UniProtKB/TrEMBL annotation:
Highest classification ranks of the organism: Eukaryota, Metazoa, Chordata, Craniata, Vertebrata
Keyword vocabulary terms for this entry: Leucine-rich repeat, Repeat
PANTHER family named in the record: LEUCINE-RICH REPEAT-CONTAINING PROTEIN 72 (PTHR46759:SF1)
SUPFAM superfamilies: L domain-like
Name under which the protein is recorded: U2A'/phosphoprotein 32 family A C-terminal domain-containing protein
A Pfam entry, by short name: LRR_9
Residues that span the membrane, as ranges: none
Organism: Gasterosteus aculeatus aculeatus (three-spined stickleback)
PROSITE patterns: LRR
Domain U2A'/phosphoprotein 32 family A C-terminal: 124-142
InterPro entries registered for this protein in UniProt: Leu-rich_rpt (IPR001611), Leu-rich_rpt_typical-subtyp (IPR003591), LRC72 (IPR042655), LRR_dom_sf (IPR032675), U2A'_phosphoprotein32A_C (IPR003603)
Length: 204
């Protein structure tokens, strides 16, 4: 509770006025109850030792959630109500179960930036193509991508309390990857489309 009070942007602000909250590097082991911040949009919980998430603690209006560098083994049942999320950083945790992880996020149709690297799921077969297929709105995955011509990527080591996503570099989720993902996970439909495109039935 004290950490929350210290992290509120200005003294005297009501809970309802808080739209950003920085709880990074507070030695948190669990997610505090933040449900009273009804209009919270951006939340930093990175660089703690959080090992368990509770969906009841997070407001459904969140648009940016920073959970990187914790000890989180699963997000199942904790994030699916956050349908307004656009940015979700989860790298360097202990996430297992790629299918369960992407299933939890599938209702987030505005999610455009996500990180899962340095988790066990990032070593699963065809990890990147699987994520692109299951979460088609994603434009930047693991610090690789381009949004509306603005290069984006992994956050720099030094960053202000309010990091914006569009401040760094490398190249990323490209149309070729999306085609490969479609071909891999929609093989039958891909064959039908091929047969239509070439005016003949595609053969095995």
């Amino acid at each position: 509770i004290q950490d929350i009070k210290e992290s509120q942007p200005a003294a005297g602000r009501r809970d309802v006025d808080v739209d950003q909250l920085n709880l990074s590097k507070k030695k948190l082991t669990r997610l505090p109850d933040l449900s009273r911040f009804h209009f919270l949009r951006e939340l930093w919980l990175n660089n703690n030792t959080i090992s368990e998430l509770s969906g009841r603690s997070l407001n459904c209006c969140l648009t940016e959630l920073y959970l990187q560098n914790n000890n989180i083994p699963s997000i199942s049942g904790a994030l699916k109500h956050l349908t307004c999320l656009r940015v979700l950083l989860l790298h360097n945790n202990r996430l297992r179960g790629l299918e369960d992880t992407t299933k939890e996020l599938r209702r987030m149709q505005q999610l455009h930036t996500a990180t899962f690297f340095l988790n066990p799921i990032s070593h699963e077969a065809e990890y990147r193509l699987h994520v692109i297929h299951r979460l088609p709105s994603i434009q930047v995955l693991d610090g690789e991508g381009e949004i509306s011509g603005t290069r984006v990527g992994k956050p720099p080591a030094a960053r202000s309390i309010c990091p914006t996503v569009a401040c760094v570099t490398p190249p990323g989720v490209e149309s070729a990857e999306r085609r490969r993902s479609f071909q891999m996970f929609n093989r039958e439909r891909h064959r039908v489309l091929q047969s239509v495109a070439f005016g003949r039935r595609a053969t095995g």
